[in-house]
């Protein structure tokens, strides 16, 4: 139980509690201004202090970081591990908890004595472990420390000190943004069920999240589209691999010729020269043919013809002295002979030119073949670089295809495994619920009995097995209202506290903020307080609840709440009337 809540803040109003039911009241002055709300009294801050001292978070927005409070300690005196313990913590040094107890012998982590302050100090992480050890026996399971999803003190404690925001939405939630694994593991543990099953369910979700991230990395559309292309990808990979092998062979056999362009230009020049020589030879061939024809046409005139010409000349040219006939004959024969000799010399010259060109052509052709040989077996540097670039592009294309194929394969395999794993976990969960049938029946009956104290038609607590893990729903008969929903949270918490107390676990107290009862009918509020008093007495636990003094409550006949009022009364009527004794922004 909690004995007192205190602070080093001089204006702080110390709160003292007794066993059983404790009702902390806050007055609201009827003439109070609108800004002087009931929240200014500090009822909800009482729960914040309990969480803060019990290893709760202290972020930059925490009230304990505010300048007016940061330099002061806030403390809790309560039962822990069979002894009365005092624990204090401040917003200026939120990482340390000052503890005071008669003995630390059985603590899983021993505090260290500060020589400077002469106080026993634990860091918040170690304090969390101490609280989990004594309140929930968390060190009892060796498996618990091997997973990030195992139950922790901070995942269990909020069900016993329920607060806003988010604590009043669903019975199994203590904050709205909680992941399924957080409440599935916590509630399963508190109900005495196998909490490792929902823990393993989260591992399946993590695997599925990895698949989603992989799908996003692949850059495709729907997951099914990627998987469906697996066969096409395999064919593309085979084709690209073959094409790449050919390119690789070309690259490995490629030889760079430094003067490639010069050889290429020389080969062109040689080709042009050979063409010119061939053309000149053709002309000389034609000339030889013409000369040979001319020689065949050249011959010595017949004697009869020459005589005829000679006689005609004498008649035509009388009185002219003519050479002797023999002299003329000899002259004509000399002319023909000279003509043939000239033509033969021209033919011989043409043939010599052709022969010279043929020799030149043979030399040039040999040089050209050498150039072509180099050009065919070597390549220019820019060609080689271009070939390399093309090869690199094809390597990248193949690599992308292979990664997409591996991703598709992994996605397909991962989806299949996840589906199988979910079915296996569902079978485990069903088997656990079957084996724990007596425990489940006890839980269901306990919830129904508590609910029947509040309503004629009690709500039903229905733990269920699904392919996404266990669910813990509440079925309400008849019309559902916000007030009824809040009372199911009250019933759920009472059930958990009763189950824990019956096993010697839990913090030994249950704390509810007044906001839980805001939408609840006055008669049900009175019944809840009377039930809380009987419950606390029956299970030797403490039930602390905060209320506004003007809250309309209809108590059951014979029940008097006055003896259970906490001596300290808070008010928002004055600046000093609240829990902290000061007002701050």
TrEMBL record:
The keyword Cell membrane does not apply. The keyword Repeat does not apply. It holds the Pfam family DUF2326. Residues 223-280 form a coiled coil. Residues 288-412 form the ABC-three component systems C-terminal domain. Residues 450-584 form the DUF2326 domain. Keywords: Coiled coil. This is Uncharacterized protein YydD, contains DUF2326 domain.
């Amino acid at each position: 139980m909690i004995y007192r809540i205190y602070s080093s803040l001089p204006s702080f109003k110390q709160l003292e509690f007794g066993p059983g039911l404790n009702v902390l009241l806050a007055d609201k002055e009827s003439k109070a201004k609108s800004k002087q709300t009931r929240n200014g009294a500090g009822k909800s801050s009482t729960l914040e202090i309990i969480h803060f001292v019990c290893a709760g978070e202290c972020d930059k927005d925490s009230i304990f970081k505010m300048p007016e409070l940061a330099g002061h300690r806030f403390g809790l005196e309560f039962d822990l591990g069979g002894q009365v313990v005092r624990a204090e913590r401040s917003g200026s040094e939120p990482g340390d908890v000052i503890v005071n107890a008669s003995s630390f012998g059985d603590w899983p982590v021993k505090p260290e004595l500060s020589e400077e302050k002469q106080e026993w100090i634990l860091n918040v992480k170690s304090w969390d472990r101490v609280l989990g050890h004594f309140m929930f026996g968390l060190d009892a399971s060796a498996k618990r420390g091997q997973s990030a999803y195992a139950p922790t003190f901070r995942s269990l404690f909020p069900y016993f000190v329920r607060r806003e925001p988010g604590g009043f939405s669903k019975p199994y939630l203590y904050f709205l943004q909680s992941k399924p694994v957080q409440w599935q593991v916590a509630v399963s543990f508190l109900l005495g069920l196998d909490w490792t099953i929902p823990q393993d369910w989260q591992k399946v979700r993590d695997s599925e999240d990895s698949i989603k991230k992989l799908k996003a990395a692949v850059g495709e559309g729907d997951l099914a589209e990627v998987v469906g292309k697996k066969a096409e990808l395999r064919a593309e990979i085979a084709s690209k691999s073959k094409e790449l092998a050919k390119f690789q062979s070309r690259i490995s056999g490629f030889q760079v010729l430094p003067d490639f362009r010069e050889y290429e230009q020389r080969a062109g020049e040689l080709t042009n020269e050979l063409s010119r020589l061939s053309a000149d030879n053709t002309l000389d061939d034609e000339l030889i043919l013409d000369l040979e024809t001319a020689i065949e046409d050249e011959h010595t005139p017949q004697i009869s013809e020459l005589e005829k010409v000679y006689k005609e000349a004498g008649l035509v040219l009388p009185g002219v002295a003519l050479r002797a006939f023999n002299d003329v004959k000899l002259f004509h024969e000399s002319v023909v002979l000279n003509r043939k000799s000239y033509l033969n010399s021209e033919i011989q010259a043409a043939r010599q030119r052709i022969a010279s060109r043929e020799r030149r052509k043979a030399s040039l052709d040999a040089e050209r073949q050498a150039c072509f040989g180099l050009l065919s077996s070597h390549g220019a540097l820019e060609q080689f670089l271009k070939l390399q670039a093309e090869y690199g592009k094809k390597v990248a294309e193949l690599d992308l295809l292979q990664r997409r194929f591996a991703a598709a394969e992994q996605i397909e395999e991962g989806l299949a495994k996840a589906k199988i794993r979910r079915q296996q976990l569902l079978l485990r969960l069903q088997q656990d619920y079957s084996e724990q049938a007596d425990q489940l029946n006890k839980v269901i009956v306990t919830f129904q009995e508590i609910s029947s104290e509040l309503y004629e038609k009690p709500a039903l607590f229905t733990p269920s097995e699904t392919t996404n893990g266990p669910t813990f729903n509440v079925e309400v008969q008849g019309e559902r209202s916000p007030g009824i929903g809040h009372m199911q949270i009250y019933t759920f918490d009472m059930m958990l506290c009763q189950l824990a107390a019956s096993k010697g676990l839990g913090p030994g107290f249950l704390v509810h903020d007044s906001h839980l009862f805001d939408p609840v009918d006055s008669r049900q509020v009175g019944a809840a307080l009377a039930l809380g008093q009987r419950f606390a007495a029956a299970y030797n636990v403490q039930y602390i609840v905060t209320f506004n003094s003007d809250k309309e409550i209809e108590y059951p006949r014979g029940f008097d709440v006055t003896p259970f009022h906490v001596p300290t009364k808070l008010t928002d009527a004055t600046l000093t009337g609240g829990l902290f004794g000061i007002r701050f922004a």
